[in-house]
Write a structure and sequence with these properties.
2 copies of one chain form a homodimer. Chain A is an all-alpha fold. The first copy, chain A, contains 17 helices and no strands. Helices cover 72% and strands 0% of the residues of chain A. Chains A and B meet through helix 1, helix 2, helix 4, helix 9 and helix 10 of A and helix 1, helix 2, helix 4, helix 9 and helix 10 of B.
């Protein structure tokens, strides 16, 4: 069935083509949803530009407004989720494109410490707090796991808005986020293993660790060779075509080996960064990103169920677990103290958002029966708080820590 | 459920999270499909560049190769269909952006004659041929209806590749295609009405005609005002944001009133054409189009079921109906004789492809029970032939009819 030609058959005839109509209707309504998300992110984003607040929060809020929590014009669904995923992929591809590998390697030690400390503290904090408030052991493990991995998308967008992606603190955050994602993956694998088998399967975990490091290492090893490749002589329609195919391919490969697709997209972007000036790859990739990435942020808003957050019990536990989530990442800033206290604080705050990574951990726990609805709502609360608080505080914080970035700077 | 973090849980644990996994798996496989479509269209498109053939045919062929007909790596599905639809929307938005309304109006009379003749002849040709080979009356009506509307996407892409979108013959094709789509819609509404109620409901058809003309008229009436709008002062993040929101909004509106979304996108592009230079809208829209439009063409190839076309009966009827489809549009070229015989021939051939419009008519007939599998396969055959033959012949034809376009021109 094909939507390019959507007749008013429903008004002219009386049934007989119910199936065709149902498909047409669903497709038109997805078109409507994309339109609403584009429109809402543009308008609310503009308001946030005017009041000098992070546009990404405006886009998230736009999703809350048009989503089930308020207007109900846009609902959760696998199609929108995929478009949102493409948005996240192009966002991280673009961030990678603006990142030079040797700049990340320069801060490799700092990034590693930040990532490790920022994973261990929140995990055990969450685990013991879960036990303390009466979660069973498996649910407590999931709670801890949901606190591990940073959702770098939101922080990356704020850094992009402020044009500070090339600063050392930004590089530490990006490097730590890549390591973080691998850690989060391993923790989730272990916790899932315990939840379903009651034991840890060492072989699976070792394989996972090896594959992850091999993937990131292989991508980094590509960089010196890429510089010498004349893109226009490859069997592709255009250099932009090479870039898009490579980005999508690395995202797919990452998901096949069990990593987040956005990690693959980021690594692909970092590889292509070596060629971005020669082939003017940034403007077209930025154009695609500027269409799709706001849909990603808005979709995170669409997924927020405000109603589930109104129970007093959930609220109190949510506040405490949010504090643990924030504190755990803030302490990890000591790994970045070489950059001075202020910029180390930027790193700590930049690692706070859990976003979609926390959501997926909680969802897996929920569908495995390891986490109940109430425990799920607590994780959602934490995700909302950490995802909103980081960009709100990052902007003034960066202005304070980095004198070259005025707070009142106009962003486009 | 969220795909940003796809763990190897399947390898570490044993079930318990079947649902979550199923969703993850579907989403990763869609990512794989998009990657394969990007890669295949890039590589096959490059081959077609090298052998000086229309890239769009290469992209269509890429879809056939990776689709169920051959490799089976990409299959039909509502998600890919929607991405393909977005591709068609951005393609026609881009084509609209390169079209000035007063240029279309200059050739309005020619476009109207081409559209009307090119709808009447194929419709009655298809209807009577259907009766002749033993289709019942309703199936014959559907056969006729499937022959009415041109699929302008393929022709538009060839004209874009050759950079002849501003020539009078291109404008006649674009103008006629908009009228054509409205005609096709009305014919389908009438035929569907007869199929299900056995009678024509006049009120519904009149309303449909009025709404269609009001939509196109309203969009055209916007043009003189648009020139005076300072986009940067609208409550949108950026002028590009205004353009994308307007394009998606018009596509959605078109689908709501029963027109094809691509008609809305084309009208939106034509309105924004008045501002495209001032705000440099073309490069970013072109970037988005260059990611999504090849997916549209490849998806048309994915949908082609080569196996259904092997019956001798279907082949013979398919060849005859294809000849009727081609002849009907070729005769309509007399409406464009003011441009000389050669360029009128370009118009006739440019109107030949039926593409997705023919497919949707056949699908509606099939799901309404008015058309059987064999009759459906005949329409598919016609769609394949008309969709492939037009761009293959258009390229040398334009080179012959328009001396400013050398046949060997390199396209990007």
């Amino acid at each position: 069935m094909n939507p390019f030609f959507v007749p008013l058959v429903g008004q002219v005839t009386e049934g007989g083509m119910a199936q065709a109509e149902a498909v047409e209707k669903a497709l038109s309504s997805h078109l409507f949803e994309i339109f609403i998300l584009v429109l809402a992110t543009q308008v609310v984003g503009w308001i946030f530009q005017k009041i000098k607040q992070p546009v990404v929060i405006g886009e998230l809020l736009a999703g809350v407004i048009v989503g089930p929590a308020l207007l109900g014009w846009v609902v959760e669904g696998s199609l929108l989720e995929f478009i949102a995923e493409l948005g996240a992929i192009f966002l991280l591809f673009m961030v990678g494109l603006e990142t030079r590998m040797h700049d990340i390697l320069k801060v490799g030690k700092e990034a590693f410490i930040v990532a490790v400390v920022g994973a261990i503290l929140p995990f055990f904090g969450g685990y013991y707090f879960g036990l303390y408030i009466g979660f069973n052991q498996v649910a407590s493990l999931f709670l801890g796991a949901a606190l591990v991995a940073t959702s770098v998308g939101i922080t990356a967008r704020v850094m992009q808005e402020l044009e500070v992606l090339s600063r050392p603190y930004s590089r530490i955050i990006l490097g730590a986020a890549v390591i973080d994602d691998i850690e989060g993956l391993i923790v989730l694998a272990i916790v899932s293993g315990i939840a379903t088998t009651g034991a840890v399967e060492t072989a699976g975990i070792v394989r996972l660790v090896l594959i992850s490091f091999a993937f990131v290492g292989a991508a980094m090893a590509l960089v010196p060779f890429v510089r010498r490749i004349p893109l226009e002589r490859l069997p592709f329609q255009s250099p932009l075509g090479v870039a898009i195919a490579f980005g999508m391919g690395m995202a797919t490969l990452a998901s096949f080996i069990g990593l987040a697709p956005i990690v693959g997209a980021f690594m692909a972007g970092m590889v292509m960064a070596e060629l971005r000036e020669e082939y003017e790859l940034e403007p077209p990739i930025h154009a695609i990103e500027s269409f799709l990435a706001p849909i990603f942020f808005a979709y995170m808003g669409v997924q927020l169920d405000l109603a589930a957050l109104t129970s007093r019990e959930v609220l109190i536990a949510g506040v405490v677990i949010s504090l643990i989530a924030i504190a755990g990442k803030l302490v990890s800033m000591f790994g970045a103290l070489s950059q001075g206290l202020r910029q180390a604080l930027v790193v700590g705050v930049g690692m706070v958002p859990r976003g979609e990574v926390g959501l997926i951990v909680a969802s897996i726990g929920l569908s495995a029966g390891a986490v109940d609805e109430k425990e799920f709502a607590i994780v959602i609360f934490m995700v909302v708080v950490t995802t909103i608080i980081a960009p709100l505080s990052l902007r003034p914080l960066i202005a304070w820590a980095d004198p070259e970035v005025p707070l009142t700077e106009e962003t486009a």
